[in-house]
Design goal:
Elements: H1 3-18, E1 24-30, H2 38-46, H3 58-68, E2 72-77, H4 88-108, E3 113-115, E4 117-118, H5 121-124, H6 126-139, E5 144-147, H7 149-152, H8 159-170, E6 174-180, H9 188-197, E7 203-209, H10 215-229, E8 235-239, H11 244-257, E9 265-267, H12 276-291, H13 310-343
Parallel strand pairs: 1-2, 2-3, 4-5, 5-6, 6-7, 7-8, 8-9
Helix pairs in contact: 1-13, 3-12, 4-6, 6-8
Length: about 350
């Protein structure tokens, strides 16, 4: 068994053993400090405070996870720190290097980091984007591959996206998208088109309609997203970069709907764009208030007694994501093992 298959097996065993109590941040971005472009490095050196896209490395993420009592994190690259030019081949190499760092972090800390890949057909070219997917899944053992249509300026339901998703699914991984109200490239109708096109496959929509949009501008998409998720059970949402009041409404609506919908929400921070300590401190307090149903301003008149319980909270805090990610991890381990055996 090669080192990637060994890491995957280690993670599968760890996730299965601790599934009922793991707290997992399902949206974090890491950057290799040794590979920062000089312009980005200078900006970092000159500014000790937060700015949009300010990078963090694995050590910094681990420190904040410990401080926030978060057991594991889904990690992917930070697109604000991946330096692009007008050369698709150079962009391909930069993005592949960023993905390699994510894979290396997961290899060093298999009980802390679940690695996810990132591809970009707009800036790398479609063929290079497909090559990145193959490398991320088969060489890095990544169970999830993300695209950011908002930042890279292509429609979430563009035909080239279907080609990308077809490839991800063919390799037994899960497609994920930045999905927010911050640009016209990720509207609710585009997510619905994806959900209808791939009804038997999960699709992760990160931010559940939030992202970089202002609260008032995002309000309509927040509501549309909640309705979409309760219509299509294959849509999974990472709750990050979104107004807390809407996240609470999402949790109430999905818990009321029950399975399979109550299995489809995951807690997240969007670190370093959001603080893990702030977000998970907030999630814990929010769930504490939801558990105290008789004193909750929305739930005290709910006809369902004890709508939330400790087991349900544990699912949203990590258990739901464990259930989702185990299957692609097992499938990809099988693909890697078979591929290696055929080469012997």
């Amino acid at each position: 068994m090669n080192k990637i298959a060994e890491r995957i097996q280690h993670q599968i065993s760890f996730l299965e053993k601790h599934a009922d109590h793991l707290v997992i941040d399902t949206d974090t971005h890491l950057t290799d400090p040794s590979c920062l472009h000089p312009d980005f490095q200078q900006k970092l050196n000159n500014n000790p405070y937060y700015y949009q896209g300010r990078p963090i490395n694995e050590a910094e993420l681990l420190l904040e996870m410990k401080q926030a009592a978060v057991d594991m994190a889904l990690i992917w690259q930070n697109p604000a720190c991946t330096y692009y030019t007008n050369d698709p081949q150079a962009n391909f190499e930069q993005l592949l290097q960023a993905n390699q760092y994510i894979a290396d972090c997961a290899h060093r800390y298999p009980e802390k980091f679940i690695p996810a890949g990132w591809t970009d057909p707009k800036n790398c070219g479609l063929e290079n984007a497909l090559r990145i997917i193959e490398t991320c899944v088969l060489e890095y053992g990544m169970p999830i591959i993300k695209l950011n249509p908002a930042q890279n300026e292509f429609r979430m339901d563009d035909p080239m996206v279907f080609t990308i998703v077809d490839k991800i699914i063919a390799l037994k991984a899960i497609p994920a998208f930045h999905y927010g109200a911050d640009t016209p490239f990720t509207p609710a109708v585009a997510l619905e088109n994806l959900a209808k096109r791939y009804p038997n496959h999960p699709i992760i929509a990160v931010h559940m309609g939030g992202g970089g949009a202002a609260y008032i501008e995002a309000d309509e998409q927040y509501t549309e997203s909640r309705k979409l998720g309760l219509k299509y059970p294959n849509i999974k949402f990472a709750l990050s970069a979104k107004r807390d009041t809407h996240m609470e409404s999402d949790l109430i609506a999905y818990q009321t709907a029950g399975a399979p919908f109550s299995n489809n929400l995951f807690c997240a921070s969007d670190a370093p764009y959001g603080r893990i300590s702030w977000n998970f401190g907030g999630f814990r307090q929010m769930f504490k208030s939801l558990l105290d149903q008789k004193n909750h301003p929305q739930l005290h008149c709910c006809p369902t007694e004890n709508l939330f319980n400790d087991a349900a909270v544990a699912q949203y805090m990590g258990g739901n994501f464990v259930q989702l990610v185990l299957e692609p991890l097992k499938n990809i381990q099988g693909l890697i093992t078979r591929e290696k055996s055929q080469l012997v």
